[in-house]
Amino acid sequence: MPKMPSERKEEQYLKEREEFFKKLPKLNRRQFLKVAMASAAVVLAKNSFPPHSFQLVEAVEAKQGGTEVKFRFAYISDTHLYERKLNERFVRAALKAVQDVNALDPQPDFVLFGGDLAQLGQAEELKLGKEILSELKPKVYMMVGEHDWYLDLGEKWIELFGKPYYSFDHKGVHFIVLNSVLVDDYWTDTKMSPMDRMKFMAQLDNPNGRPFTVGKGYGDVGKKQFEWLKQDLAKVSRDTPIVVFSHSPLYKYYKPWNFWTDDAEEVQALLRPFRNVTVIHGHTHQPVFHRIGNINFYGMLSTAWPWPYAPTGLPKLTIKMNRADPFDQFDGTGDGTVEVLANGKANKVYNLWSREPMKVTARYLESGGREEVPPLPVDPSF
Amino acid sequence: MKRTFIFLAVFLIVAFFNSANDLSAIENEGDKKTEKKVITACDGETQVVLNDVAKDEVMSREKAQEVAAMLMATYQQQKKYQSTKFTRRDSLIWDRELKAMIEEGYKWFHDPSLGTNGISCDMCHPDATDTHPETYPKFQIQLKKIALLRDMINWCIENPMEGKPLKEDDPRMKAIEAYIIWARAKQDPRPEGKTLNPGRR
Amino acid sequence: MSSSKHFYAVILFFIAFVLSFTFINEKQASSSAKVTYQVKIPLGIPKDLWELFIPPDNPITPEKVELGRKLYFDKRLSVDNTVSCATCHDPKFAFAENKKVSEGVGGKKGARNAPTVLNAMFFEQQFWDGRAPTLEEQAKQPIINPIEMGMPDHDAVVKKLKGIPEYVEAFKKVFGGDITIDRVAQAIAAFERTLLTGNSPFDRFIAGDQNAISESAKRGWQLFQGKARCITCHEFNRSNPFFTDNKYHNIGVAMNREGFADLARKAEMLAKQGQLDKRKLDELALDPAYSELGRFLVTLNPKDIGAFKTPTLRNVELTAPYMHDGSEATLLDVIEFYNRGGNDNPNLSGEMRPLNLTDQEKQDLVEFLKTLTGEFPKDFPENK
Fold first, then answer.
1. Strand partners, A173
2. Is A6 exposed, middle or buried (0-12, 13-18, 19+ CB in 10 A)?
3. Is B170 exposed, middle or buried (0-12, 13-18, 19+ CB in 10 A)?
4. Burial (0-12, 13-18, 19+ Cβ within 10 Å), A297
5. Over the stretch C326-340, which tens digit does the pLDDT of each residue have?
6. Cα separations (Å) of C81 from B173, C98, C141, C162, C306?
7. Is C215 an active-site residue?
8. What is the DSSP letter of A360?
9. Which chain C residues contact residue B165 at CB under 8 A?
10. Would you call the peptide bond into B137 cis, given omega within 30 degrees of 0 as the criterion?
11. pLDDT tens for chain B, residues 1 to 201
12. How far is A15 from A319, CA to CA, in rounded Å?
């Protein structure tokens, strides 16, 4: 089995790191720190693979006009809450994300919630989620996931959080929040109870699962949304940067797990005329990034658990995180921030709780992975 | 020595001549869509079905030699154990039993009742991904000792799922193992998932 | 093929065969020459492990061990002749101490509880934050730490020892030369490599004696590996029977120090932004909770904030109080600490969670931990 280039690079990195540390025994701590900083500077200069925490991320930027950060927003996604008495674990993780965001300095302009607040769409779960997110200091924008939707087809969600799709403008950027988890009706003919319908949807590896869509699905919800999207975009100038939030990836990654949007091409076509488009999605619970045409895609981390990478279809530009340690509930999970630049591009920071943070820039995606290559993961695979 | 050689040579020739055999005559389970090469020995009974050679493909000399050896082994086996020749009925029963066990395992693999916090195996391991049954036994970092697949299943039940471990001979444990091994062998397109590789990290 | 060709091939093969033997013999000879010292390896430690862990650049000899022992117990290594290695790593308390945190010269208090020297040769790194990779490097640091043995620098240590004729002679005999700080450290480390512990009731139980430990302790051992989740960090197996994974974990003990959470956030932010230079570190060092950053001070990796090394559990019954700051008085207190899932803090390890142990289960765990009390060297002329 030939190794992925990223694996080879990681081996090389680990070797370099090991040799570096081997040379240290002769130094005391102060000297060690000096050496550590000096060597970090050296590897950075060579555009090699510096340890993430030594990386002087900001220094690389500002080469071109407009690449300075205009504003930041944070995200929390896929909390999958059960009722507290059943599962403390996911509650703990969601609270940790809230603490993280509240500790950010400077504070982000707002927080996006990326969907799947609840595990089984129950009122208690959604209410618990609302209660936890209400602790956030910045304003929160909510996006719905399939785990929130299919018990009552969005009834409780709309009551608690309002419309499932909408748009807003912030500092010259047009933001669009979609409900991308619409599927065709599999429950009426089979006479499923609401809970059966929910559980059918909640199973990722369901062999009978239905593909997500934005503009199709049961009834006319999708059709209406698609019409609305067209009209919403018609009002926006082509130079206005656009950031789209969707729960499912707005492209085709792996159908058996619904890492997939069936009418992705149609939505992408609507976004094609615009100069700067970024799509931020949830659902995949992993660092995953992609570029199609004029669109940059970034997946969000879950606070609850990481999904494995799908066996096929992984976007080529993605740098895979190593497998997480299941004993550490925070490993492979986390939250993150998005930097929106003055030129309308967006960079993304994956704040992995038990691992090195990973920053992926628009430039990396737009250069086809040749420039600003994010440091490769150094944490071990479990 | 010489005799075996001649015998082999005969089979080889037979194998070459039989390459255009009719597949539809073979009563066997299997995929009817892709036609496979079937080689019949000179007794007109002993047959080998080749999964990796198309019906009209001409085999290499090495491959033909391998097939000849297989035919001979099958021929001798049948002569020895004619009374225990397996029937279609036999394989029907086996297949159904295997399927039932795997389905049982699939059910438990997706059932949060093994734990106490709503979590089930498939939530981290859709299609049993990242269970790598082929790497056991191996030193399991979480257990700090050499573990079998079942030890790690129990570890997951006890830790992320916060449940009580199953006894090793619990039918649920056996079924889960059966499902995992089946799912990985059937669904993982990567070749390393299909090769036993004990100890691999 | 001609027969002469055949003949030469056979000859060549024979020569290679003979040579390979001499090679192997030489290798065996050199490895056995490395260790001329015989140490009693107690039950529970694999026989070959001890030799594997002797560094080739500091071979053990009886004379070196003797010199190391003298240095270990010699208070003259401290600035005012009041503190020796043994002051805090006392044979009476299984080479640890019974104080919350160590007290150095002039009664100055440190920030950390002294860990045991027993079996320390088998640890990956030394100190609670692992800043020393070897026993040799470890031995050098407390001597010049102002709140431990308080010598101004290593030159002063060497100068002071050179004024003691018996040391001048002993170093000449052992090392064939002058006193240097590296040789001081080598001698102390050599002595420490004779400080082994094992043959506890638990070791006898693992070796097959079912009656070596009580039923309660056996239940405790099961809990240790299962529900109580201890073994994940306090690793135990035949190849690593020392009850430590030699890794660093934030279990929340650092939260005992006021202001730690804010300091941790600050350190994390600086590290993630790549702004942690010497000046920023010196700024952080003014914070009284600074040393609680733990492993982070060595790696500068945010995930190591507040993380400390998993200590061994052998003889744990004798080394109260517990944790890196001595904050837990009894074994039961430690178990209560873990049972509540540690202390919440921004960098708490995801490995921590409430355990829901019953009172009986806690008692069983204590019983198990007590079976780890084993044999170790106690009789030293200096230790009366």
1. A170
2. middle
3. middle
4. buried
5. 999 999 999 999 999
6. 65, 21, 17, 15, 34
7. no
8. E
9. 226
10. yes
11. 566 655 555 555 544 444 444 333 344 444 445 678 888 888 777 888 888 888 888 888 888 888 888 888 888 777 665 556 778 888 889 999 999 999 999 999 999 999 999 999 999 999 999 999 999 999 998 899 999 999 999 999 999 999 999 998 999 999 999 999 999 988 766 666 668 888 887
12. 19
Chain A neighbours (≥3 Cβ pairs under 8 A) are B, C
What is the torsion angle, in degrees rounded to the nearest 10, for the CA atoms of residue C121, residue C125, residue C126 and residue C131?
A: 160
The answer to whether B124 contacts A203, with C-beta atoms less than 8 Å apart, is no
Residues in C touching B142 (Cβ below 8 Å)? 232
**Amino acid letter at B167?**
K
A327 inside 8 A of chain C by CB: yes
Q: What pLDDT, in 10s, does the model give residues C124-142? A: 999 999 999 999 999 999 9
Q: Smallest Cβ distance to A382: which of B141, B188, B190?
A: B141
- Give me the catalytic one of C97, C103, C136, C148: C148
- For the stretch A287-298, pLDDT in tens is 999 999 999 999
Across the interface, whether the CB atoms of A53 and C265 are under 8 A apart is answered no
Instruction: Please report which helix (H) or strand (E) contains residue A168, including its range.
Output: strand A166-170
Q: Are A89 and A77 in contact (CB under 8 A)?
A: no
Q: Are the CB atoms for C139 and C184 separated by under 8 Å? A: yes
**Tokens 């209410």 -> residue:** A127
Cis-peptide, bond into residue C201, ω within 30° of zero = no
- CA distance linking residue C205 with residue C260, whole number of Å: 42
pLDDT in tens, C231-284: 999 999 999 999 999 999 999 999 999 899 999 989 988 887 778 888 888 888
Alpha carbon distance B178, A225 (integer Å): 45
**DSSP strand pairing (A277-281 vs A242-246):** parallel
